[in-house]
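Cross-posting from the modeling subforum.

Setting up a comparison between two proteins and wanted a second pair of eyes on the formatting. Protein 1 (sequence, then structure tokens):
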Amino acid sequence: MSCKKMVSIALVFVFFWGLCGCAGKEKQISANVEEEVSIPMILTVDSSTGNRNEEEVVGAFNQAYAGSYRIEVEWIMETEEEYRKNLKRLNVTDELPAVITDLRMLPSYYQMMIKEKRIEDLCPYIYEDEEWKEMIEPAVLEACSEPDGSIYLAPLSTAAFSCSGVFWNEQLFQEAGISEFPKTWKEFWDTCERLKAHGITPLALHTEGTAWAPMLLATAELADSEEGAEFMKKLFPDSYQNQSGLQLAATLKKLFSYTTDDALHVDFDVSYSNFVSGKAAMVPNGYWMIDQIPEDFGENVRFAPFPGNKLISSPETFGWAIVSGYDEAVKEGAVEFLKFRTKFNKEEKEKFLEGKNPGMNQMMIDYIDAYKGGPQIVPNYQVKWNSVLQEEILGEYIPRLIDGEITEKEFTHIEDESIWQYEDEL
């Protein structure tokens, strides 16, 4: 149900029903907090670098709100895929922290959390706080909003940090006589052939999890046609047994002819290691990897949009949710943290796009140029496709497709079976 402001001239009072699918809610942030409120959260430690993800924004918030609120983080050494699986377990045992990340990467689970009222509608906070709302790019706010106007994912201010493209090793390209990143997909495949001919492995790939790296490339290429771009915009496609599905399967198979011998049945950490050790010339990933590349190796690394001037981005995947069931003081503190994160991100964006970040390297300069270069934005498949396909099918059947145990047509049929299984589980 959408919300409207309803005014009656026969009455001397006004009923404000919100602007966003949140009628009847009367949540106010307490003006005074008598003692420091602890807000539990779980965040991951990057297994490749040992870096604590989101440590900077957590530290800044705890310093700014010392004495009032404190984010108490449990740091875990898990992959993002493992963290997402644990969200489901923690929900069943009623042990979820107050703030959770990555929820939108699990489309069906996310919808279940909404249906069962396990997460808070943030609409009244955002729309009744003009400062917060004005920080958020309209496209980002729209991406984080449900059809009825409710908002369960606190948006970042911008899509500027949510984009994925290709990191490439300039030195290895030069060794193969290649001076720039390919602009078209034909040039991309020619580049792979040329690198291979010079004894250089073109791509760092993997199949575990949701097969993130190869799926980025395959979906970006699919979106090069009008039909494929429309397919990538569909939420929960009703079939993969079509031209788009067959093309995607064929591209996946082709990609693995240009990767390392250890690419099957491993996760992204192996792809990352193969790239930063110089064993492969390219790896697709997002902005966040810039800080994960060793400084000495980073001198050789560049960033480029996918061929056809494409970036993959779904800013809603970076929205964080507040778990219902906590007392009001904790939830109010969590709201303050999410607003702080939006502001923190906005300030980062402004400095970043103005080129004022200290220590800005060539990768960052490349990324800014790509973001400002009018790219076609392709939606992230992880927020579009059913969870059975992502969590059970891709990791098991992409290796079988690569090894020739199943054909492209059989692969698309198995994808369709995931749709039927997903629908049966609803």
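Protein 2 (same layout):
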Amino acid sequence: MKQLKIILIIIPLFLSCIEKKEFSLKLNISPVKNLIMKTTNQAVSEGFTNNKVYIYSFGGLDSTKLFSGIHQRSFRFDIEANIWEEIESLPDTLGKIANAASRINDTIYIIGGYHVFGDGSEKSSNKVHRFDIKNNQFLKDGNEIPVPIDDHVQAIWKNKLIYIVSGWSDHKNVPYVQIYDPKKNIWFPGSSVPDNKIYNSFGASGTIIGDTIYYFGGAAMDKNYPIQNYLRKGIINSNNPSEIKWSYQVVDSLISGYRMASFNKNNIPFWIGGSSDTYNYNGVAYDGSGGVNPNHRILSLINNKFNIDFNKNITMDLRGIANINDSIKYIVGGMDKNQKVTNKVYKLEWKVKESTKIKK
């Protein structure tokens, strides 16, 4: 009986000192091979074929930051081989910026953007370029966008439809929601956002999670195009995807953003990069205060609050991200400090981090 009592005493003492394992996700940001040329404000996408993973860059602005540096050149990065190569240029008459790319299965859809002319005038694009990943070539363009658009929000719903929300069209912000059905190659209208300075935006970005559209930040059509801090949400009627119920909120009055890349991870919306001031395509602020710098920021919306991380490698002037899987993304080019156009490419990888605590 004495021996039994000793064992009973030791067991509780042992249990009280058991190590408790805790797991969290840690973001690692690491450089990969540079893009062939310095480029910013271009469309970026991922692609998969023949058991290979690729990153794509379409169009953009070169390091001159002049209208003449806006180009049509396109590039593909073979991640496994660690090789960038130039591929067929965008099938348009002029180079363009502020377009966006969405991949559905084996096709990348590069939509909108704008051209800049020598006299300073601008023209929004109505083009839908379709890139065949398997055959590494452009297909015939899709049907034109009803309202030409640039600097818009572009996101995919259920791997079926591409939603174009607000944006800039030639001379003004527009409230339209334009929905593209790639399978039928048709456009149809969705419920417009309210036609006011809260919802109308250019340079905003967003994503779709389930049946909810999230888009954040951007610039309003007012004097000097002030930056916005609104988070807008659109609830899509899954039985009638043209029907959207819109609402907005200010999550944090001190947090805004312009020309960020957006994606979702673990059903959480993220916004990466961008700036805290609005600016023209050359990186100079609309309010005349001079050059704009990146905020080096990663935002995630968790429990209706913004979680903020910073990393000096995160650029601004981003129009998209290569979304390889839920744990791995790539950002390509953009503008760095002092509005320097870069050709740097970074891999973002979330890894499980294990920590040990002694349970007392």
